[in-house]
Amino acid sequence: MSGQALLRLQSIVKKFGDFTALDNIDLEINEGEFFTIVGPSGSGKSTLIRLLVGMDDVTSGQILLNGDRIDQTPANLRPTCMVFQSLALFPHMSVGQNIEFPLKLRKEDPSARRTRALELLDLLRLPRDYYDKRISQCSGGERQRVALARALAFDPEILFFDEPLSALDYRLRKTLEKELKDLHARTGKTFVYITHSLEEAMVMSDRIAIMKDGRFEQIAVADEIYGRPVSRFVAEFMGEVNLFELSADGSGALSSDILTIREGTRLDALAQGQHGLLMVRPEYVRFAAPGENYDFTLSGKLHGEYALGSRIQYELETPSGMVTVEKLREDRLNAHEGDTVAVGFNADVTHFIGDAA
Ligand code: ATP
């Protein structure tokens, strides 16, 4: 990452009639970055990407690429390229013809086109003899790679991806996530990716933007968003989470309706008289053995036990709702549904979200 903003969005608004799909968005994406936009259905991800590639017009605001305005530039003249979930390959053409398509548009001569297509097959780790293969003879993963090769043949400044992996099965998706991350590193291109899948975003991205109702709720590296979400929405969107209302009185002493708090426990993030949400991820909650002390404890009835492959998730019914605990399979709890169990955690594994809303 060079640190220079390649793409800059200033006060972008997109309205469909009275409905505001994008609500005054500002964003900077750096050259060479793998930037992912995640958000629930209807949050505005596709609308935003359509504006960036020129498939739709902004209502107001500016899009700058390398400092030049491109929001009025027709899609075919923008140095960007989009990879769709549907891939949009030409089924009647061969793999080679598909990859060469952008080069043909640029009127490059046939031998140069073929050379470049073969290089791109190498780059995407497809055998060179796929050059003559029909698209209809390729598997889903191979088609995905051909679509990527064709996108790279445009030699765009930015590649946009609109949920390209969502139609594939789990294993293939996992393989392609890693391949895309690797391809990003090898090409040094700027990738802007949209997805519903948080896991996908976490595996691949340099930074992630969480979108909600046409705005960015938080933009940060994955660890920051997971560990230090700015709001309940981001905390809950980024996987399982436990949130407890907490306040500090005039002397800074903490109080909660549900948690038992060890005397003297303080949270730097919580100022005197303030109130908010204490967050702890399930993997940081411990089952408390008798006599074990934690800054925060509570007890509840074991409600459910769910196997998640290498981990086991427990749900505890408490007066403030369900509390989720996650353990490695080897640390499985020796208790039965309906048993009352105590859990605890210390302040250093928590995060505080101010202004509980
Ligand atoms: P998904 O993940 O389901 O694709 P998204 O986050 O990409 O969702 P968008 O497709 O960008 O969401 O839609 C954002 C909002 O704008 C939605 O409420 C949608 O109904 C609305 N919208 C999108 N396109 C149009 C349109 N052409 N006319 C009217 N409303 C639209």
TrEMBL record:
A single GO BP: quaternary ammonium group transport
Domain of life of the organism encoding this protein: Bacteria
GO annotation, cellular component aspect: ATP-binding cassette (ABC) transporter complex
Domain (ABC transporter) ranges: 7-238
Annotated InterPro entries: AAA+_ATPase, ABC_SmlMolc_Importer, ABC_transporter-like_ATP-bd, ABC_transporter-like_CS, Mo/tungstate-bd_C_term_dom, P-loop_NTPase, Transp-assoc_OB_typ2
Keyword list, A-Z: ATP-binding, Nucleotide-binding, Transport
PROSITE patterns: ABC_TRANSPORTER_1 (PS00211), ABC_TRANSPORTER_2 (PS50893)
Pfam families from the UniProt entry: ABC_tran (PF00005), TOBE_2 (PF08402)
Single Gene Ontology MF annotation: transmembrane transporter activity
SUPFAM superfamilies, A to Z: MOP-like (SSF50331), P-loop containing nucleoside triphosphate hydrolases (SSF52540)
UniProt keyword ATP-binding present: yes
Protein name (record): ABC transporter ATP-binding protein
